[in-house]
Design a protein that fits this description.
Blueprint (H helix, E strand, L loop, with lengths): L6 H25 L9 H4 L20 E10 L6 E15 L3 E6 L5 E6 L2 E4 L1 H14 L3 E6 L6 H15 L5 E5 L9 H10 L1 H12 L6 E7 L3 H14 L8 E7 L5 H12 L2 H5 L3 E6 L4 H10 L12 H9 L22 E5 L12 H4 L1 H12 L8 E3 L5 E4 L10 H5 L6
Helix pairs in contact: 1-10, 6-7
């Protein structure tokens, strides 16, 4: 029967069948509760390590990055860890690049593992140190919010990679919410993300309203986008600066957010003409090969911003008839008066997508990494690998025929300075 169906309908049927096959597995995972664990949560935070006083500055020499987290810390041993459980208390920390450490397990065996050097910070000291670092660098800061299926190790590792990719000598702040770090805990991650809305918006408001904050470059990945966009709207509504123009460069990588919601509500508030003319801009990285967002589409019933699926089959047919790829993107915001600048740019990485899920091209594919770095540091006019599409605000990244297999690792994972 499948062979008699049109190609586009056959592809949709197969995708639906794939989603249905996974549905029992996903549902069983979604309805299973997050385990409390064998240890009372109060025991994890009983030690004074969870309430640090002001500490010597040299303790943070190997921890150049700043972290804000609502993860439950385990302070029972000198090496503090951040768990997947959530905490009512927002804590501040400093961390460094991944490094090999010798760990003694419960049986007394010493093992070598990659770990993130981490130290919880006194709240006041953390803000004072961040202020000092930002004031040295014209009040600029790079803020990263991770997405689904992340541990503190993986998200902090990505933060450090983003800082290196940017090429900017400015402070990096990583907001870490309690993702479970497991594929089959998507619903738990969604729940924890929404639980963090108040904590994150309070943090972003405080950061944006500091007199020494001149520019916030905000990067959000996957599910983290649903944490970030409402927070920006909140800051815009409550800022003494009517334009909130210091939240200027917003980058959404593989955003797991309803595309129509973004078009109808979010773009109309975050990208008003006044804010766009004050240099606020949003860059969105999308891929038709993003399997994670394909599952999210099946799960939620509507296309995600980060994957250009066509919900309307008639629109898909019209694109096919016109000789265009069957890809549907978020539309640009409509204004009564057009702003002087372009507020929304979409970069399609389908042709150069990498990895098992295609969900992190901005950190995995050389061309996407280079483009992403250029967007962060404001040199996108030099990103010559972008190809125009049928839409003025959408560009495609395509492999260079003279270099079809670039060294993805060396381009994307620039090593820390010795």
């Amino acid at each position: 029967m499948e062979k008699t169906l049109p190609g586009w309908l056959l592809a949709r049927a197969r995708k639906l069948r794939f989603g249905l096959c996974l549905l029992p597995l996903l549902v069983s995972a979604c309805i299973s509760p997050v385990a409390y664990g064998p240890i009372p949560h109060g025991d994890y935070v009983a030690n004074d390590r969870c309430r640090p006083e002001v500490q010597p500055a040299d303790r943070f020499v190997d921890k150049p990055y700043f972290a804000v987290t609502s993860r439950l810390p385990d302070c029972r041993t000198e090496m503090v860890e951040l768990l997947s459980q959530r905490s009512d208390t927002v804590r501040y920390a400093r961390f460094g690049d991944p490094t090999e450490m010798e760990i003694t397990d419960a049986k007394g065996k010493v093992k070598t593992q990659n770990r993130i050097p981490l130290a919880l910070n006194n709240d006041q000291q953390w803000w004072e140190d961040l202020a000092a670092e930002m004031q040295k660098r014209d009040g600029r800061v790079l803020l990263y919010v991770h997405g689904f299926r992340e541990t503190f190790f993986t998200s902090a590792r990505d933060s450090a990679q983003i800082a290196r990719l940017s090429g900017l000598d400015i402070p990096m702040v990583h907001y870490s919410w309690p993702s479970q770090g497991e594929f089959l805990k998507y619903a738990a991650d969604e729940t924890n993300m929404y639980y963090n809305e108040r904590q994150f918006r309070s943090f972003l408001t405080k950061l944006a309203q500091q007199p020494w904050t001149k520019e916030i470059i905000l990067v959000a990945h996957s599910l983290g986008v649903r944490l970030v966009i409402p927070a920006i709207e909140f800051v815009d509504r409550n800022s003494s600066n009517a334009d909130s123009s210091n939240i200027s460069n917003i980058i959404l990588a593989s955003p797991d957010i309803d595309r129509q919601d973004f078009e109808r509500d979010i773009a109309e508030t975050v990208l008003t003409m006044r804010r766009v003319n004050n240099d606020r801009r949003i860059t969105v990285y999308v891929s038709a090969k993003d399997r994670a967002l394909g599952l999210s589409y099946n799960f939620h019933g509507y296309p995600r911003l980060g994957r250009p699926d066509c919900f309307n089959p008639f629109e898909a047919a019209a694109l096919r008839q016109a000789g265009h790829p069957e890809r549907c993107y978020a539309a640009k915001t409509e204004y009564d008066t057009q702003p002087d600048k372009s507020g929304l740019t979409i970069v399609d990485t389908t042709a150069i997508s990498r990895g098992q899920t295609g969900h992190s091209d901005y950190l995995r594919s050389a061309l996407a990494c280079s483009d992403f770095a250029a967007v962060i540091n404001g040199t996108t006019n030099k990103a010559s690998t972008r190809k125009p599409t049928r839409l003025l605000h959408v560009f495609a990244l395509e492999a260079d025929p003279d270099d079809p297999e670039p060294d993805h690792v060396s381009v994307c994972r620039r090593q820390p300075k010795p």
